C-alpha cells in the first residue's frame, strides 16, 4: 500500500513539473516532451490534497476545421494561381513566329485553365492524405494566438511540434506536389502546343514561386492567418487599377467605320459581351477574389457580397469620362515612335512621314476634338 501511494505521488509530481505551453506528457509515465504530429498540449487540472494544480497532457486533435480556417487554406491554395494570372500576357498581340498559331489571349486561357486544373487536383490529393484518410475533411488543432504559428522559435529544442496542425504542413506539401506536377505538365504543354521559347519563361516564374511561398508560410504564416482577407482585397484593388486600363480598349468603331473614343458605358458593355475571351478571365477572377475576401471577413449580410462587382462597375461608368488620348499627344508620341520603333521596323523613311502627317491632319480636323484615327496606334505604343 505504501509503494502504491509513493508511486502515485511520484506521478503527480512529474505531472506538476510539466507545465510548459508547448511541452506535454503522452502518458502518465512519459517524460515531458513534444507532442506527436497531429496532437497538441492541452492543460488539465489536477486536484491535490492541498490545492488545485495544472499539468500539460498531449491529446490528438479531432476538431473540425472552421469556415475561416478553410478559407485560409483556400487562400494559400490560390496564391500560385493568382501569381500566374498576374504575369500572363494581357494584350492581343501575336508573336512573329510561324510555329505559333494561337492568339496570345487564347494561350493565356489555356495556360490558366491548366494551372487551375493542376492545383485543384493537387489540393484534393493533399487533403485526402491527411486524417481522416480518404475523406474531404480535416482535423485541426485549435488556434489560441499568433504564438501557435511560431512554436519553433518559442518552444525549447525538445518541444518542437506543429501546434497549429495542419495549417503549416499542409500548404508546404501542397506546394511540393504542385511544383512537381507543374514542371511535368507545363513542359509538355510548351513542347506540344506553344512551340515558343518566349513562353518558357512563365514555367520558370511559376516554379520559382513555390520555394518563395514555402518560406513565406514558415516565416509569416501567423501574420497571414489574421490579415489574409485584407491582403486579398488590396491585391484586387491594385490589380484593377493596373489591369483594367490595359485590357479594356478606349476606342469603339462606329457604324460609319471611324474609330472614336468610347463616350457611353453601354458601348463598353457591348464590347465585353460580344468579345468575352479578352475580358471575362480578369473580370471574373477579380470579382471572385473580392467576394472571397468579404466572406473571410465574416460578412453578416450576404448581400454585401455584391460589392465584389463594384470596381468593374465604377470603371465601366467612369471610363467614358477619361478620354485618355487627346490629339495634342500625337506629335510627341509619333516622334518617339519614329526614333525607336520606326527606326527598326520601318526605318523612318519619307513615305512613313507623309502617312503620319496625313493621320495628324485627319485627327485634328475631326469634330470631336480628340485623337481618333491614331487611338489604337497610340494605345499599342504605350503598351
From TrEMBL:
<feature type="transmembrane region" description="Helical">
    <location>
        <begin position="70"/>
        <end position="88"/>
    </location>
</feature>
<feature type="transmembrane region" description="Helical">
    <location>
        <begin position="172"/>
        <end position="191"/>
    </location>
</feature>
<dbReference type="GO" id="GO:0036503">
    <property type="term" value="P:ERAD pathway"/>
</dbReference>
<dbReference type="GO" id="GO:0031625">
    <property type="term" value="F:ubiquitin protein ligase binding"/>
</dbReference>
<keyword id="KW-1133">Transmembrane helix</keyword>
<feature type="transmembrane region" description="Helical">
    <location>
        <begin position="300"/>
        <end position="318"/>
    </location>
</feature>
<keyword id="KW-0812">Transmembrane</keyword>
<dbReference type="Pfam" id="PF05571">
    <property type="entry name" value="JAMP"/>
</dbReference>
<feature type="transmembrane region" description="Helical">
    <location>
        <begin position="232"/>
        <end position="252"/>
    </location>
</feature>
<feature type="transmembrane region" description="Helical">
    <location>
        <begin position="272"/>
        <end position="294"/>
    </location>
</feature>
<protein>
    <submittedName>
        <fullName>JNK1 MAPK8-associated membrane</fullName>
    </submittedName>
</protein>
<dbReference type="InterPro" id="IPR008485">
    <property type="entry name" value="JAMP"/>
</dbReference>
<dbReference type="GO" id="GO:0006986">
    <property type="term" value="P:response to unfolded protein"/>
</dbReference>
<feature type="transmembrane region" description="Helical">
    <location>
        <begin position="203"/>
        <end position="226"/>
    </location>
</feature>
<feature type="transmembrane region" description="Helical">
    <location>
        <begin position="109"/>
        <end position="130"/>
    </location>
</feature>
<keyword id="KW-0472">Membrane</keyword>
<dbReference type="GO" id="GO:0016020">
    <property type="term" value="C:membrane"/>
</dbReference>
Amino acid at each position: 500500500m505504501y509503494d502504491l501511494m509513493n508511486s502515485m505521488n511520484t506521478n503527480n509530481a512529474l505531472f506538476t513539473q510539466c507545465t510548459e505551453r508547448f511541452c506535454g506528457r503522452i502518458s502518465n509515465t512519459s517524460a515531458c516532451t513534444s507532442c506527436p504530429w497531429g496532437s497538441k498540449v492541452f492543460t488539465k487540472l489536477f486536484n491535490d490534497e492541498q490545492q488545485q494544480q495544472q499539468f500539460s497532457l498531449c491529446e490528438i486533435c479531432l476538431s473540425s476545421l472552421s469556415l475561416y480556417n478553410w478559407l485560409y487554406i483556400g487562400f494559400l491554395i490560390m496564391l500560385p494561381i493568382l501569381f500566374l494570372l498576374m504575369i500572363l500576357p494581357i494584350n492581343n498581340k501575336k508573336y512573329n513566329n510561324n510555329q505559333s498559331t494561337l492568339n496570345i489571349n487564347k494561350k493565356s486561357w489555356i495556360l490558366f485553365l491548366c494551372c487551375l486544373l493542376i492545383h485543384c487536383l493537387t489540393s484534393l490529393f493533399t487533403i485526402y492524405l491527411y486524417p481522416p484518410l480518404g475523406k474531404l475533411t480535416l482535423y485541426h488543432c485549435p488556434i489560441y494566438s499568433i504564438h501557435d504559428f511560431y512554436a519553433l522559435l518559442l518552444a525549447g529544442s525538445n518541444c518542437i511540434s506543429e501546434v497549429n496542425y495542419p495549417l503549416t504542413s499542409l500548404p508546404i506539401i501542397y506546394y511540393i506536389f504542385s511544383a512537381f506536377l507543374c514542371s511535368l505538365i507545363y513542359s509538355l504543354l510548351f513542347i506540344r502546343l506553344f512551340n515558343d521559347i518566349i513562353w518558357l519563361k512563365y514555367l520558370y516564374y511559376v516554379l520559382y514561386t513555390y520555394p518563395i511561398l514555402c518560406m513565406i508560410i514558415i516565416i509569416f504564416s501567423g501574420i497571414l492567418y489574421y490579415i489574409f482577407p485584407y491582403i486579398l482585397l488590396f491585391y484586387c484593388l491594385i490589380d484593377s487599377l493596373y489591369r483594367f486600363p490595359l485590357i479594356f480598349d478606349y476606342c469603339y468603331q462606329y457604324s460609319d467605320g471611324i474609330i472614336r473614343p468610347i463616350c457611353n458605358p453601354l458601348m463598353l458593355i457591348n464590347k465585353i459581351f460580344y468579345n468575352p475571351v479578352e475580358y471575362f478571365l480578369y473580370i471574373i477572377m477579380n470579382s471572385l477574389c473580392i467576394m472571397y475576401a468579404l466572406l473571410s471577413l465574416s460578412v453578416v449580410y450576404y448581400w454585401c457580397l455584391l460589392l465584389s462587382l463594384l470596381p468593374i462597375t465604377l470603371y465601366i461608368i467612369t471610363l467614358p469620362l477619361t478620354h485618355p488620348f487627346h490629339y495634342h499627344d500625337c506629335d510627341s508620341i509619333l516622334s518617339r515612335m519614329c526614333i525607336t520603333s520606326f527606326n527598326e521596323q520601318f526605318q523612318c523613311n519619307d513615305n512613313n512621314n507623309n502617312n503620319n502627317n496625313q493621320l495628324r491632319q485627319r485627327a485634328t480636323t475631326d469634330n470631336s476634338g480628340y485623337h481618333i484615327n491614331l487611338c489604337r496606334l497610340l494605345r499599342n505604343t504605350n503598351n
